[in-house]
Amino acid sequence: RKYAEKPEFTxxxxxxxxxxxxxxxYFNDHFGCRNGxxxxxxxxxxxxxxxxxxxxxxxxxxxxxxxxxxxxxxNCCYANVPFANKQLAQWQRSLEEKQEWFAKEGIRxxxxxxxxxxxxxxxxxxxxxxxxxxxxxxxxFVEHMKANxxxxxxxxxxxxxxxxxxxxxxxxxxxHWNDYGAFIAYQEIMLRLSRWFPGAKPIPESEFIRKKExxxxxxxxxxxxxEHSIEEERWTMTPKTKRHGRKVPPGKTLLTLxxxxxxxxxxxxxxxxxxxxxxxxxxxSMMFSLAPFILQHFGRLVIVFEVTIDRELIAxxxxxxx
Length: 322
Description:
Elements: H1 13-30, H2 34-48, E1 57-59, E2 65-67, H3 72-77, H4 85-104, E3 110-113, H5 117-120, H6 137-148, E4 152-155, H7 157-163, H8 179-193, E5 208-215, H9 219-223, E6 232-239, E7 246-248, H10 252-255, E8 267-270, E9 276-282, H11 287-294, E10 298-304, H12 311-317
Parallel strand pairs: 3-4, 9-10
Antiparallel strand pairs: 1-2, 5-6, 7-8, 8-10
Helix pairs in contact: 8-11
């Protein structure tokens, strides 16, 4: 959050009445050695009390950290309140309505399910967390859609579970996958897209150099103020030959389509050798590691960091696939 600013003092009664609380907030944010003391406290808490200082971070086994916000445990991994049939039917209807609209516009639609770290590395969750029920909500949803709908779905769990035997796919101190995890996802997505666009084949792993680098801790370590104390092993994937995809200006029309939040502005990429002319990817921050691999295949690729699909944006971009 933004630090409290120093309040201005005047002899007006309303200012005098509010000034003590405002100054206390300012002092609490700016007193000497504040950040160092906070880091020292959280370091002692993590190292010697085997605990964490943020309600949004959970300490797992062997130094793994997990995010606890957004009901991730309840929704993705260990749900004790399964979906009702009515809820599954609502999901199905919503996705089929999108697919029908896209089909009328000549647009392909692919739903990609990106599992979180809790799902792929459940063995590192704290021992006090136990599985409830045979199926998660995600299991329910995928099974229901495969049995009742023609919406194309890529469930990345199917390729990530086998791949984790070869190399770690997610960061220990971050909510996101590493480059290798994103690469495995990229290959599966492009294999599915190549059914519609035969020229868009994924680049094989042999064309990359996989390397382990030691760096600062990730976003979960930052939530604890321990990004400098907790090291992260980062697996990188460097292409052996030059790639032609690059970041391009999104365009004034897209940027003025609505008042975007600064950290939610759409990104655009393009490649002169893209096998698919235009695409829109709607997703979250997992896209940052995925984009460097996938952008090579598109003449124009727009990434939108949202949870909804904006029909006005789709009409503007006229993509071949969403």
